[in-house]
Design a protein that fits this description.
Strands 1-3-2 form a 3-stranded mixed sheet, sandwiched between helices. It is mainly α. It is globular, with a radius of gyration of 21 Å. Helix 2 crosses helix 8. Helices cover 54% and strands 5% of the residues.
Length: 295
Amino acid sequence: MRRAPGWRMIEPMTAIPRRQAIALIAGACAGAALAQDGVRGDVGRESRFTGLVSADQIELASTREYSQLKREATAKGVLAPDEHPQVVRLRAISQRLIPLAPAWNQRAANWRWEVNLIRQKTLNAFCMPGGKIAYFEGILARLQLSDDEVAMIMGHEMAHALREHAREQMGKTAATRVGAGLISALLGLGNLADTALNVGAQLLTLKFSREDESEADLIGLDLAARAGYDPRAGVTLWQKMMKAAEHAPPEFISTHPTGPTRIKEIEAALPKVQPLYAAAPKPPKVYGPPAPMPN
């Protein structure tokens, strides 16, 4: 029989006292329950505003906007090729996180995920609806992000997409605007392609609420920990962000406000996700950041 690498026969368990056996089983069950729950108990229900905007429309708009971004990057010669070491790194990390996504949003199982790198000094990264991920080289090189820190950002950005925060924000906009034509289009009563063009440009400039950011932090920690990345990197990541913001706030900070309160919230969540990390298979390879970029 063919066996996977690293497979080995488990030796028969030697006899142990009944009381000790019960304690071991109880501890294992408690640990399994904790690992299963993670941060789920801290995440609320989907916003009612998402119902005002079609998920299909948002994802179509995202696909178009992302394709346009790649075309522009290619024209400028800044879209990193598939064989670029940091593209390989980003995709290797994403391949550990993406299989965990459908647990948070069933639509994610059918998303056509993409991960690309834009070779510009911008300190930014995002995941658009439908699983369209992009990193700018600046955030990797200037902050010298470890693989764990990259996974924290990726998990956070994926969480925004999985919880459909963009759809929620657009739903809130629709709810506060007057005009039957706009509402009809957003409800799916208008032309799908036209609506996608109207909302596509908004996807890269949306500012999420503080509640959305906190939720994305929690889910991002959970995803990354289950994927085998140390969630304590969430603290070091935002410490680096705060330091980068001291002189000239990077673009990432404009849509992802940071501060001591955010770090405290992450630290408070660590006891819930550390068991997930402890139980998770670890990445077989550590890649590390690219060479530092000049300021």
